[in-house]
Specification:
This protein is mostly helical. The chain contains 22 helices and no strands. The chain has a single domain, classed as MFS general substrate transporter like domains (Growth Hormone, Chain: A, Up-down Bundle).
């Protein structure tokens, strides 16, 4: 087949982007999610006892990260749009790696709060910046596929990260440090190293990519420029690419609340699942060592990675539709309160696995929608706003979960709240699908 064939050039260009950029940015995301959730492994494995944390204090420490994250999210994403993704994402990663390293020596509750807040400040803008960066490399019809490959890093962080964290914790006494402190040290160093590498590895836009052929660079640049122009005809919001227009658009706020519900479920599960598994000893009389707990924590996320990929593949083939988000959200809303009603550890983990699959099926398909009607600086501001409002749930979910657990004495009430938040996301997905039927039915090409 001739390389001059447009279809061949398209396949080749998307394949190169998929292999060159997505795995590296996914690795950055892997380290990002591991660093921000490392506290969930440290808590039940010595940190809560050593620092004297209640469930509410642990939840506040987990959630205060998002206060700093939220404050600087939009300014950080606008800075990325101005200075370029290569420089800005590398800067973010090195900064959060340095802050993560300091957790090795935290010695008080207030010190833990302060470092979690600073970690949020350091990480601000990374996730929406990565979404924006990848969205600027592929046309809309390929975007859900690319974002699905990127999002695989999130469940795989737990699949791989939980056992690795357990092994680091089991190295108790190394350098005279408690195991949970060694774990913080071990997950911080890769962030610094990969952040430095990102400065030299990433490329800001297709026209600068020496690893693409001239035909591939021209095709990507032409397709993306044409798509930006088409967005102007699709929505008044995109005509001017105005950040202010994005911040006051009703659809952006609907997406924000939808994302809030999904993220509430994600972080309630991520921060408290190791603690819930630790509680199996009391509920069921079972006993697991640290490494076994790490493996059990990883169980729900491996099927979730497969479901994420297959569900997003279907969305890529059909075009992302509202039910690609509403159906898994509804399944999660029903399953998560049922998890703690089960009569055995295996049954509880099985239902939690269904919840994890539901959350990760919805998330990458969600992000394929906002980029359809936002462009330029409006995309930077709008995507950052959606992620900012959604990540308020990152603070609310662990804190409310901890307070509700302390108040009720169990995790059943907190999980009912998670179910309600995911039900809200399901309803909003259906509502936005009714108002955006034409965009939701946008055809997609498999490659």
């Amino acid at each position: 087949m001739s390389v001059a064939d447009p279809a061949a050039v398209e396949r080749s260009a998307i394949r190169k982007v998929s292999w060159r950029l997505v795995p590296f940015v996914a690795l950055m995301f892997f380290i990002n999610f591991l660093d921000r959730t490392a506290i969930s492994f440290a808590g039940p494995n010595g940190m809560s006892k050593d620092l004297g944390l209640s469930a509410a204090q642990f939840g506040l420490a987990a959630g205060v990260f998002f206060i700093g994250y939220i404050v600087l999210e939009i300014p950080s994403n606008l800075a990325l749009h101005k200075f370029g993704a290569r420089r800005w994402l590398a800067r973010i990663m090195v900064t959060w790696g340095i802050v993560s390293l300091l957790f090795t020596w935290v010695s008080s509750v207030n010190g833990l709060y302060a470092l979690r807040f600073l970690l949020g400040v350091a990480e601000a803008g990374f996730f929406p910046g990565a979404i924006l960066f990848l969205s600027m490399w592929v046309p809309a019809r390929h975007r859900s596929h690319i974002l699905a490959l990127f999002y695989l890093a999130q469940p795989l962080t737990i699949v791989i990260g939980a056992p690795v964290a357990a092994l680091l914790i089991d190295a108790h006494g190394l350098f005279g440090l408690a195991g949970w402190r060694i774990m913080f040290f071990g997950v911080a160093i890769p962030a610094i190293l990969i952040g430095v590498l990102a400065w030299f590895y990433l490329t800001d836009k297709p026209s600068q990519a020496s690893w693409l052929s001239a035909a591939e660079r021209d095709w990507l640049s032409t397709e993306l420029e044409a798509e930006e122009q088409q967005k102007g005809a699709r929505a008044a919001l995109a005509r001017h690419g105005s950040p202010l227009a994005a911040l006051t658009d009703g659809r952006v706020w609907m997406f924000s609340l939808m994302y809030f519900g999904l993220i509430y479920g994600l972080y309630a599960l991520a921060f408290f699942l190791p603690t819930i598994i630790g509680g199996f000893e009391t509920r069921f009389g079972t006993h697991f060592n640290v490494f076994q707990k790490g493996l059990i924590t990883a169980i729900p996320y491996l099927p979730a990675a497969f479901v994420l990929f297959l569900w997003s593949r279907d969305a890529t083939r059909r075009g992302v539709r509202s039910w690609h988000i509403s159906l898994p959200s509804l399944i999660g809303a029903v399953s998560v309160p049922l998890a703690l009603q089960m009569g055995s550890p295996s049954a509880s983990i099985a239902v939690i696995t269904v919840t994890a699959c539901a959350i990760f099926a919805a998330l990458p398909n969600f992000w394929a929608l906002p980029a359809r009607f936002l462009s330029g600086a409006a995309a930077a501001a709008g995507i950052a706003l959606i992620n900012t409002v959604g990540n308020v749930a990152g603070f609310v979910a662990p804190y409310v979960t901890g307070v509700a657990k302390d108040a009720s004495g169990s995790y059943q009430l907190p999980m009912l709240i998670v179910g309600a938040m995911m039900l809200m996301s399901a309803v909003l997905a259906l509502a936005i699908g009714r108002t955006r039927t034409r965009a939701s039915l946008e055809p997609a090409q498999a490659h």
